[in-house]
Structure formats: C-alpha cells, structure tokens
Amino acid sequence: MNICIIDDEKDNRDILAHIINRHHKDVQIVGEADSVKTGLDIISQMKPDLIFLDIEMPDGTGFDLIK
C-alpha cells in the first residue's frame, strides 16, 4: 500500500512516518507535503492508496484539498 502524509508540522509528519515504518513494513510512504498546494502535487504525481491529512494548514484546509 502506498500512502502520503500531508501536514504543515514536520514533527507530526516525522512521528507518523516513524510509527508507520515501525509497525507496517508492507506500507510505503511515497510522499510528504506541508501544504494544500504541495499536497495536491504529491497526490497527482504519486496516486497514493491512502492519505493522512491534516485539517488546518497555512494555505487552506484538508477539506479544501479533498474538493
């Protein structure tokens, strides 16, 4: 399974990536983003199966990205 992590706080991305890598060896993190704009770019390029998405980011919300 390929996933992306989209969160404006690097510490949150790092913690989540560490937990995923430690406990789910069959999951590959194919991209990380720190904003709605870069999140859209990563999703378009990588076509992940699952997205971990923050709600509040500087340039919009996770709900904006879903639209």
Write the layout of secondary structure elements.
Blueprint: E1 2-6, H1 10-23, E2 28-33, H2 36-46, E3 50-53, E4 56-57, E5 60-61, H3 62-66
Parallel strand pairs: 1-2, 1-3
Antiparallel strand pairs: 4-5
Structure, described:
The protein is α/β, with parallel strands linked by helices and 67 residues long. It is 45% helix and 28% strand. The chain is built from three helices and five strands, in the order βαβαβββα. The protein has helices at residues 10-23, 36-46, 62-66, and strands at residues 2-6, 28-33, 50-53, 56-57, 60-61. The strands form two sheets. It has a three-stranded parallel sheet with strand order 2-1-3, with helices on both faces. The radius of gyration is 11 Å and the shape is globular. The termini are far apart. The model has no long low-confidence stretch (mean pLDDT 96).
| Quaternary structure annotation | single chain
Alpha carbon gyration radius: 11 Å
| Biggest pleated sheet | 3 strands, parallel
* Helix/strand order: EHEHEEEH
The total strand number stands at 5
Summarize the structure.
This protein has three helices and five strands; from the N terminus they run E-H-E-H-E-E-E-H. It is α/β, with parallel strands linked by helices and 67 residues long.
